[in-house]
Amino acid sequence: MIIFLKQDLSLDKEKLFRQFLVDRRVEVIPIKRKEQLLLVVVGRFGELVRREVESHPSVAKILETDRPYKLASKSFKQQATKIHLDNGTVIGNKHIIFMAGPCAIETKEQIRGIASEVKSAGCQILRGGAFKPRTGPYDFQGLGKIALHFLKEAATEFEMAMITEIMDVRDIELIEKYTDIFQVGTRNMQNYPLLKELGKTRKPVLLKRGMWATYKELLLAAEYILLGGNEQVILCERGIRTYVPETRFTLDLNVVAYLKHETHLPVIVDPSHGTGRSNLVRAMSKAAIAAGADGLLIETHLDPRKSISDADQAISTVELKKLVKEVKRVAMAVDRK
Ligand code: PEP
Ligand code: MN
After folding, report:
1. Which sign does the torsion angle of CA 174, 178, 184, 190 carry?
2. Does the domain at residues 83-333 carry the CATH identifier 3.40.640.10?
């Protein structure tokens, strides 16, 4: 349950109401939203207390939902969440968003060269990993801080926003100085300390679905960020583990349609990790947009075979241009732009 307090409530009245809840052993998590205080109830309480709360003079309204995630649910917010970036890009409106770039930032020249092509393909956001979550400790781990600088420089030169992955709570302050969007990778979807800290920032967070995660687990992970007061959460499907050996993961497009029914948050699809095969990326990009996704996250490289990481799934920038053109045609067909 969510309790909406009256907007003009004095601090004294608020304190009295909080004590009223304590007396009834009702535990709440407070969140401030545009001058209004919301109290999200932890656990359940009986009918009697419910009626007392509902009729309390300090309460504007209560919202009951049968969903375990509350702030992420459509019953809490009906209108789609729109995320506004500094370069004018809006995620979650009619326009399809293209985020593209290499898996990892390899050199200053590499990211600049890719950025120029990504921009001319019509993408709004440049991606690139500086801190890479690699399965083996001997694999390239990313260039770290210097790569953030290269990515920012390239994004700024070509008037794009940037997105990069965060793995460690201790890097928030550093990455926040550079990035427009934090990316939380599949392996960290349930890194709760990281999600809680990102909830305290005011930068958008793209939360990738764990490769094992149910829809409920994804939405509950998003709830951790929302509860911190950060309303700018973007959900991302990037493929799940199934029994299929022919593709790296199975891109689950059911989740796109499901999330569109269930939540007001924007949904992005990553067909690069979702297939692991560059020759499937264009087809699955079109399918994702037809299913209702708000945008795509795509790995691209000037010379895909030379990518230090994820070479098999990187598409060339020539292929990217073809992809954007074709996706835009699908977008028109489903009443998007
Ligand atoms: C990536 O985007 O390069 C990445 C590591 O993604 P994921 O977390 O989906 O594996
Ligand atoms: Mn990758």
Report:
1. positive
2. no
